[in-house]
Amino acid sequence: MRVLIVEDDRVTREALRALFHNEGWEVAVAATGADALPALESPPEWLILDLMLPDMDGEAILKKIRSERIIICIAVVTGTSDRARLEAVLDLKPELLMGKPINFP
């Protein structure tokens, strides 16, 4: 299984990378949306997507994936509690929406 982790926070990105790698996944990481977009040309099975990236909104990446009908499972991670924003994201049908901070066992 392959996963792409798009997360600008280095500590969170590396923790997720280690978690998936230790479970036997092939892991690619990106700190920005611009770094992530080329990886979607050959999409992995899963995308872990932060909503608040330094160069673009993670919601825009999610919209692009859905509009282009790219087959990929998406888990959105966010620290926002903006109800309207979360509802807009849920309308794009991610498989999972997780709040931050993520608690790692």
Write the layout of secondary structure elements.
Layout: E1 2-6, H1 10-22, E2 26-30, H2 33-36, E3 46-50, H3 58-67, E4 73-78, H4 83-91, E5 96-99
Parallel strand pairs: 1-2, 1-3, 3-4, 4-5
Summarize the model shown:
Helix 4 links the parallel strand 4 and strand 5. The longest helix is centred in the N-terminal third of the chain and has 13 residues, at 10-22. The chain is 34% helix and 24% strand.
Folded structure, characterized:
This protein has 105 residues and is an alpha/beta fold. The protein has helices spanning 10-22, 33-36, 58-67, 83-91, and strands spanning 2-6, 26-30, 46-50, 73-78, 96-99. The chain is built from four helices and five strands; from the N terminus they run βαβαβαβαβ. Strand 4 (73-78), helix 4 (83-91) and strand 5 form a beta-alpha-beta unit. The radius of gyration is 13 Å and the shape is globular. 24% of the residues are buried.
List its traits.
105 residues; alpha/beta; five-stranded parallel sheet; globular
